[in-house]
Design brief:
Number of domains: 1
Strand order of the largest sheet: 1-4-7-11
Largest sheet: 4 strands, mixed
Radius of gyration: 15 Å
Structural class: mainly beta
Helix content: under 10%
Low-confidence stretches: none
Number of strands: 11
Strand content: 35-45%
């Protein structure tokens, strides 16, 4: 919920401790926005998932896109365990806003059959 919905801004702590997505198919054709977008949680885990994008403009799993109401809250850890990605699907970790208010991002491949990929949500780097 955001202030534009009549709510108070987010506190300085994350909204959720964990988001876990297990055994899920994300299959999108001709999309114009991220396949999934998660914000302000301590840990995100995708396990045994498949991500497919066909003719997609933004084949991303986006973490922490800031629409101006996050109050510096930030996802800390993102894990992909035994996941498949097709059609150029990438993890898109949005970094904290810079002094000019712009938000850069870091992208990573997430195809990891039988393996595990772990990313730091604050730095955007693989752990």
């Amino acid at each position: 919920m955001t202030p534009s919905q009549g709510n108070e801004p987010l506190s300085r702590s994350n909204m959720m401790r964990e988001v876990r997505v297990v055994n899920t198919l994300f299959d999108f054709t001709a999309g114009d926005r991220s396949i999934a977008s998660i914000r302000s949680t301590d840990e995100v885990v995708f396990e045994d998932c498949a991500f497919i994008a066909r003719n997609h403009q933004q084949p991303n799993i986006t973490i922490d896109k800031d629409y101006g109401d996050l109050n510096d809250t930030k996802t800390k850890r993102i894990t992909f365990r035994n996941c498949r990605a097709r059609g150029g699907v990438k993890l898109n970790i949005m970094l904290a806003r810079d002094a000019e208010g712009k938000q850069a991002s870091v992208r990573h491949d997430i195809d990891c059959p039988g393996g595990e990929l772990i990313f730091d949500g604050i730095t955007g780097q693989r752990i």
